[in-house]
């Protein structure tokens, strides 16, 4: 696809070469994200960082990615506006706000809202999450992390063995990851959940049609014993009828250092879309894993900045110019 | 007036040459707002964008205007602060915040509060709306849009025929627009509203004293049949005693494409201060007008950026220097 | 201490030479804060301005200080995030957010939270206030102001006579100030409060051990008659069991121009950590003092910008380079 001027709304837009293109650009952003270099390529450009639902992590990550390319960020951090209460349509909001910025990142609680907004927008719109529907940059940073972690171990995505663990019924991130993985071939995918929280059947089918070997199970320790990646997820309490119902499942499939040592291969990489639930009753990834070098959960969020920089640079067509407007950092940086 | 270092609190500050001065500077901002050029003239300057009442649209518009001149924006987006709850006076707030920035834009729910704040401030203050009192940049962008739309049709403001429609009793924007129009001569002004929501008599008198021909009516279709501008407004529900009372008037004076085609002259320009109420029960400007090239409502908000850039540049005395610190944009821009 | 890469969590980190070092750097920031010059030394750097409790004044002051050094600010203005509601630990929040910025300023309602956050952070963290515990930049700006006010009168800190007045039991700022003053020698400190709101005994002891002469009293007028500095404070209503209990003390120890003229030496400097409570029932510093040139309360907040610029420049190790990347301001500035 041609990224220049395009909206980024869904991972379904991408074919495998597009994914690989994004990942190459993300790799090229590394000197800037790690503060070895500074670029001003987007000097004067404005990101409209429109979060109509609060999300500190994602909002700051997008804003930071834009700043790292030299641009400015104007933002909103929740339903502060009374315009919608006064009956304003998404069409009007989009037309107005797109007059203020060069690109918009938008999060909104309602499924499909970002696509509707994008249709009226006069500038490219990146979906920062629309309800339970899509959050494409999260899916991309997950796959980017998998690729990078595998590469660090001298492997590619071919033959990848991955287990997804937890609430696979409600987890938007694992759904998106399955759809991205279906662009590749020959993977071994193990889906570990209580039967009631199983991965939707259509996604299992999608991966099988792509030629992957898919195992569905509710047995944790056997499942994580022969995988490259153990991708843990949180119980999505907010999607259950009640806290009580969610509590039935909370704390199943806990992973900690003792289980890791006993059951996993030495280099198994642990991932999680965050936030992880660190309360005693849930604790799906114990804090005693924090010093485990294979815990990749914070490399995931770091990679998110690279992927978001790549999307901005591609949509605004400045990939080739990033290095031209660069210099070394002047300040202390220990990263 | 000398704009350098001045507060912009009310349209009553301006005489006709001041308005024309602002509009000339706004015209000169166009290459920057449309992203053909980028200027860094305000590099290092800080706007204190102090919104003590939420307003995404206006807040982002001011912030964006300042960014487009190369400055930085620090802001507040509502009554987050506990300082006022702790008994802090507006005087103290102003003295403190004015130590942090080079210019302040302030919105506040209380009439007169911005002028009180400005008196204590050590930097210029621009009124971003104080209750039902003033919102001078909105009035300026309305008149600027009228001038620009007329110019595009080869006309000037002389002999302008304008209808204002809807809740003319409570609408702050139409009140301000009347006061601005009173600086000009020989206009034909038609005021269309239910009798209960009529334009205040002192404003009708003001326009008549200026030599305008003013017609007061509650008849829509006849009124819009011979005008250059049809300026529609929303029922200001929040100013009524109850929603029920507001509902009595909602949905009167609807304008849609069918009515436009049947009653308006071919080039009648449609304006609205936004937000327009798109709910079925109100719908003062139907969405079927969205593809009508004479619907100028989004050109109004775009023009708002130009007018706000002009105010910042004039108050901070950098008008002459904007172009000196400019370059072409580097990134994709489809505007 | 070596400031490069260090967290700034508590004034207990500092010895006297460190304080003097900070103050020398703050002095050097003056041309930038007063807008005679602009520096871009931190171009490309990002401050994560993480306010998990609202505070317009402190948040904007830190953000402004970072902007004045040329850096960008990403921020959060309250507990918007649902991540913590979803059970995320401070460790995870810190690891994630520290991947987005070069330095973090954090305010949080919970005592000790900022230190816990800093332990997990990969970048330097500056404590912007953690509950009733610490707010080191406030303490520094208070002492910096005292030093500067004394210098303007040709005096040093030696032999300083200071009265602290009001709710000395709950006031975090006066507690911190006492601890800083304990690094110096030979001061005369008068502590004026109702017996029930007296300065904690351990702080009185600390100052006595430092060799200061400390008087504890509930008598205002005698106490302020022979001091260089009268440091007034607000009744910390939120720390009382009830508003009624706080009301018992509100309005005691009021200072106004008439009392000042009658009892104070001509050049006594009046300070207050702000916000001051200007409601009639409290009014600890009357507005009739606003034109008194010895009212230093707004010089305090102005000095806060200098001190915060100094902390950023020292922690990021750019003190020597600030001037190298500087130029004169281009815009109107009346300060």
UniProtKB/TrEMBL annotation, chains A, B, C:
Reactions it catalyzes: carbamoyl phosphate + L-aspartate = N-carbamoyl-L-aspartate + phosphate + H(+)
Cite a single GO MF annotation.
Answer: aspartate carbamoyltransferase activity
Q: What EC designation does it have? A: 2.1.3.2
Q: Name one GO biological process term.
A: amino acid metabolic process
- List ligand-binding residues for carbamoyl phosphate: 57-58, 107, 135, 138, 274-275
Entries under Pfam families matching the protein: OTCace, OTCace_N
Q: What class of enzyme is it?
A: transferase
Q: InterPro entries, from UniProt?
A: Asp/Orn_carbamoyltranf_P-bd (IPR006132), Asp/Orn_carbamoylTrfase (IPR006130), Asp/Orn_carbamoylTrfase_sf (IPR036901), Asp_carbamoyltransf (IPR002082), Asp_carbamoyltransf_Asp/Orn-bd (IPR006131)
Query: PANTHER family from the xrefs?
Result: ASPARTATE CARBAMOYLTRANSFERASE (PTHR45753:SF6), ORNITHINE CARBAMOYLTRANSFERASE, MITOCHONDRIAL (PTHR45753)
Protein name as it appears in the record: Aspartate carbamoyltransferase
In its UniProt entry, the species of origin is given as Simiduia aestuariiviva
